[in-house]
TrEMBL record:
GO MF, one annotated term: small GTPase binding
InterPro entries: Rab-GAP-TBC_dom, Rab-GAP_TBC_sf, Rab_GAP_TBC_domain
Keywords on record: GTPase activation
Keyword Transferase: no
Source domain of life: Eukaryota
Protein name: EVI5 isoform X1
Domain Rab-GAP TBC: 83-274
Amino acid sequence: MDKKKVDEHEAGSVALPKVDRFGFVKPEANSADGLTRSRSAFEYEREERRIRKWRKMIGVGGSDWKHYLRRKPHVVKRRIRKGIPDCLRGLVWQLISGSRDLLLMNPGVYEQLVIYETSSSELDIIRDISRTFPSHVFFQKRHGPGQRSLYNVLKAYSVFDREVGYVQGMGFVAGLLLLYMSEEDAFWLLVALLKGAVHAPMEGLYLVGLPLVQQYLFQFDHLVKDHLPKLGEHFAQEMINPSMYASQWFITVFSYSFPFHLALRIWDVFLYEGVKIVFKVGLALLKYSHDDLVSFYGLMFKCLNSLQSCLTIFL
């Protein structure tokens, strides 16, 4: 074997980073776990049956979706709550959000927005791009295709909606969408969400002062007090308010620092049923961790009181 072939062989044998089934690089500590658990024949066949049901429901390119939705909304809701098949997720998200209709009604608009000359928000977008899903192979390479696509979508939206422009946190939403669809599709789904193609418009999440975030946090605080009164009382005593832990839940709809497979299931339901799923998941998280949160903040409060007493003695 000549030197050129040896070099090519060695280059080809370089160990690639191990990734999970969604494309996120796995930590070395978990490398022994394998890339993914192999499916049994029964699980594989069950998933194939599920995909066939979904394909029949949506039709070719989504042609049967609206008809099926009108006839059997309860079936659609049940299947979405069970989880959309990953291979169809991008298309279904566009159908249930109304973004596919927006794209068809606005041919060529996205391309014009991308090439529009502007300096507004560009530096902020560029600065934040490398922080968006940094462990995903699509976004890891500096100036790579993933980062370029993310920049284009965010820049196009900042031009499209001058009142909102670009706000930190939008990158995780756009990044999530780009993992399942093209730039143009991701842009129009972002428009559908913020402008309210199906549900109430969510642009207030990103307007100056984040008015919709403040409204949701106020409502969430009251829900905690109503449904988890003991925890609500402890939070009040420790002066812990939802803005200290729940803002990102609403701004990114759990796409930031949340297990990705769970975030996808939340997004399936969120796009169909609206923002109420964020409230439900948030309450479920607090309920699940109720005892630990009460104990932790109670212990922290005692420690702070003891520390304050000690400082009082010495000062």
